Give the backbone structure.
Amino acid sequence: MVRLGLIGKPSDWLIASTYNRDILASRLGVEIVEIPIEEVTSLGEVENGMDGALRIYERIRDIVSRYQLDGVALRCFDLLTTIRNTGCIALSRLNDEGIPAACEGDVPTLVTMLLAKQLSGCPGFQCNPARIEQTPGQAPTMLFAHCTLPLSMCQSYSLTTHFESGIGVAIHGELPTGDYTLMKVSGDLSRVFVSEVTLIRNQYERNLCRTQVWLQMSDEDIQYFLTNPIANHHVLVPGKWSKKINHL
Amino acid sequence: MFYTLISGLHKEDIESVSPSMEDVGTDCQTVAVMTGGTEAQFVQLLQQGRITLDKPIYLLSSGQSNSLAASMEILSYINQHGGHGQIRINR
């Protein structure tokens, strides 16, 4: 079995990101291991900067080892009020180490990242849709953003604070332009979204999560997002993988 | 019916969402999702009977403050529970 740790419950706002434990086990061989958030928050308040962020990483890395996990989803917002720092660096490092690590306790997104890693070698960038631009006569574009990603996906990066809280250490990454695959699997495996998109530019605005990328996509993709998305988080993976995913 | 959802998680200046006359008509169910973190507020509106899944629900979204992300989570919830909805982007 593949063991995926859920540290804390899924974030309260993930009202459409439930998962079916039995289906994940029977169809994917995935076991969800529930771990109390206190195993991280018992650190107590840490330094606000990188030293504190690395202590969070070390604690989660220890959890991954002790529970023999192949991936982890963290209820990261609980760290803001207890530890007074963020899990962004920890999750980034784990992803770079080949351990898919998702924010906000989002299990379907973690499963998507696991599949992305198995297909492409990269767990991908868990991101929120942030903005849509539709200009007549041009391919539509969407802005996606989040506060952490694998540094191995970046051509450059800088460290800044987490968006909503203004504390901790988050990542503004600049990704190479070119071909990517945007994907998401529902928590009961009944739905899969996969689309090959083009990353056309990076940007930085203050009132958004810190890594921000514009993707050019099809009109059908835009309709999917506006009428029937699989929740909000999606995973962006370098390269073109739709044929392999559809084959699965 | 027109409702506005905003979360205290977001301390930044919030971009306003401007409904049209159509959005605020009595036959419409329109929710302006101003920020992320508002998804549970939407569920409360349903539980209180102020919004019904029996009629279409329109979610007005801006390009700031995780408004669009929250709108998508809410829309996904509506669809999962047998309702019908659509996101409208604030221009």
About this structure: Chain B has two helices and four strands. The first helix of chain B runs from residue 39 to 47.
